[in-house]
Here is the input.
Amino acid sequence: MAEQVAMEQAQVQGEDEMVVDDFQEIEALAELGVSAADVKKAKEGGFYTIQSLIMNPRKQRLHAVKGLSEAKADKMVEAAKKLTTAGSWISGAEAMQKRAREIVKVTTGAAALDTLLGGGMETKAITELYGEYRTGKTQLCHTLCVAVQLPITQGGGAGKAAYVDTEGTFRPERIRAIAARFNLDPDAVLDNIVVGRAHTVDGQMELLQAVGAKMVEEPYKLLIVDSIMALFRTDFTGRGELAERQQKLGQMMALLKKISEEFNVAVVVTNQVMSDPGGGMTFVADPKKPVGGHVMAHASTQRLYLRKGKGEQRVAKVVDSPCLAEGEASFALSDDGVVEYKE
Here is the structure.
């Protein structure tokens, strides 16, 4: 019964709020003469959609899949290009229409924060939340896991959520409380969230590589990694391993970007901060910076800095975004998750 209710909450709503996802399952290659056996091998190698064949570099494409010759792999890629516009030129007007048709913005639970973000957390983008402990990063992630299941007309995404937990902070009881706030069935909401606990960077990467198999089968609209850098800081130590760490981080962020665009999901990652020894010398009011360096800075679509205010007040600041102006918004933390801040 819970599963039935869950699907009613997360299924397509009315035609007026229909969102078109442009990914195509890899089985569509059969229309162009690719054998079912080769399609099966591609799926076993982690390729679930037509778009995934285009989005990966040649050395990471089908050539690396066991049982597929280079000639067969090239044939599949060429066939994929005939079925999708991914990787091809389109006009600016077409790009605008495509975004209007596909992009969903998921409410954060606080109107002021939604306004700052231009409507909420955007799909096909990586939003980085960084700040000290107790600034609301994890609570915002929990709230989004519930809000994404709302109908699109109510600020949701009419979809499910995937949560990669690297610090052991996912709390089902918090989800239940937030679900009650939104008048949703708590059990159904929990059924619509899949959680993966990672203990190593390799385990974190494997969870992300496997999530595509779920997203191609069911309507997901949110992927959370809480936090992105925690395991990197423990698995790689000292300056001697810094280059390898940043290379692996770059690969993981590239994978997240592909997932966000391939399946039209909002990717939200939390990040830790570190003290900037030189910050005090430049008269910076808050000399802290996010972990991950330039790799994180360039890979994130938009970056939000969260800090503590008075009492339960938290302040979010847009630090970087391709379309949002720099600004700040206040929100509060409560038993119901992220809510509007009232002075």
Notes: Residues 20-102 form a domain with the DNA polymerase; domain 1 fold (CATH 1.10.150.20).
